[in-house]
Predict the structure.
Amino acid sequence: MAKYIGAIDQGTTSTRFILFDATGRVVAAAQKEHQQIYPRPGWVEHDPGEIWQATQDVTSLALQQSGANARDIAAVGITNQRETSVLWSRETGKPVANALVWQDTRVSDYVDELGRDGGADRFRGKTGLPLSTYFSGLKIRWLLDHVAGVRKQAETGDVLFGNIDTFLVWHLTGGPRGGLHITDITNASRTQLMNLQTLAWDAELLSTFGIPSAMLPKICSSSEVYGEVEVAGLKGVNVAGILGDQQAALVGQACFSPGEAKNTYGTGCFLLMNTGQRAVQSTCGLLTTVAYKVGDEPASYALEGSVAITGALVQWLRDNLGLINSSPEIETLARTVEDNGGVYFVPAFSGLYAPYWRHDARGVIAGLTRYANKGHLARAVLEATAFQTREVVEAMEKDSGIALDVLRVDGGMVENDLLMQFQADILNRPVVRPAIKETTSLGAAYAAGLAVGFFKNVDDLRGRWSADKTWNPKLAEGRREAMYRQWKKAVTRSFAWVE
C-alpha cells in the first residue's frame, strides 16, 4: 500500500521534490536552483530545459534519500511559479525560446496599447485582473510576435503554450509521445485569457490578445487524476493535483473557509483571502482569482494582493551589492542597528503591483543621510516587505468587508524573527507561523491526495493545521503610524520614473 504523497514545487529560483507521509510530515526533500537570465533591463527569463532537468534530478535525489520507489507513492501533485510562460514544439518538446518569467516587463508597450481603449481595468470584469506586464497572455503574444515562424505553428497546434505546470505535466506524462497538454483552473486564471464565470478560455479575449486557441491547454480542476507519469523513478504514479504556488499555500494553510487568509513570503509576497464560491471584484487594486477546485465541486475564489519584490530584494542585496554572503545574514546585519535610521527602500524593480499597479515605477531608496550605513539599508530591505504587506491587508479588508484578526504566514522569510516581529508591529495584529512550514508543497500534496483518497476531505486537512510560533505587536501606535506615513511618501517617489 502506498505510504507517501509526492509534491513537485517548481519555484522562481529553484525546483524541489518533497515526499510527505499521511500525517503531513516531510519524509525526504531535494532542491536545486536554476539560472536567472537578465538579457536586458526589465527582462527576466528561465531556461525551461534546465527546469525540466532539475525536476528529474530532485525527484531522483529525494527517492534515494527515502529509499522509496514508485509503488510507495499514492500520487504526485505539482505547484509552480505562476504566469511564467513557455512555448514549445509538440513534435520535439524543445522550447522555441526561453520562458518569460512573471517579473518580466518587456510587454509594457502592449499594456499601454490595450489600455487606450477602456483603461487598465478593461478586462477586469471577465478575468479579475488589471492590464499588467504580470500575466501570461501578453507574454504569449510577445513570443508569437517576436520568434520567427512561431505564430503559424501555434495556429495549427504544433507549438504549445503553458505556464510551468503545463510544461512539466506534458513532459512527465510522455512529452512528444502523447504527453497531456493540460493546466489547472488556478493557473488558467492567471493568463488573463480565462473567463472567471465560465471557467473556460474566452473567445473574445483570445481574439483581442491575438492568441490561437489551438496552442492552449485543456483546463482541469486542481484535484483529479490526470494521468500517469511515464518517466523513470515515478513511472506509473498518478499526477493528481495542480495548483499555482500561491493557491497551493492557501490550501496548505487549510484556508478553506471564506475570510481565511495567508501571506507567503518568497521571491515576491502574496496575500490570498478565500472568498468562497463568490468572485469578489476589487475596487482597491487587488486581483480576483480562482483559489482551487476539487474534482466536480464548485470552484472557490480568492482575493489576492501581489507584491513583486520581497525575498528577491534580499537576493539583490546579496548578489548585486555583496553586502551579505547568504540570505539569512540579512537579519544579523539588520540587528546591528536599532532602527532604519530614516531609510526607506521601495523595491519597484519591475514596477509596483498591488495595490498600485504602476508599471512606470522603479526602485527608490529614500531618506539617506551621512548617518545611514549598511545595517540601516538591511533593515529597510526587511521593512519594505512588511510595509507592502500592510498596504495589501488594508486593501483586502476594504474589498472584503472582513477584518483579519491574525495573519497566517509561510515561505522562506518567515524564519526571520526580526521581519516577523516588525510585520506584527506594523500590522498591529498577531502573525502566526504554522507547524508544517512547507505549505506550498503541502498544498500540492493535499490536492493530489484528495484525488486518490489518501486524504479524506477538506475537514480532514483543516484538522491537521497547527501553529508553531506567534508574534504579537509591540510597537507604540504613534511610532507605527509615523513610519507608515514615511513609507507612503517614499512610494510616491517611485512613480512615473519610466517615461
In short: The CA atoms of residues 419 and 444 lie 27 Å apart.
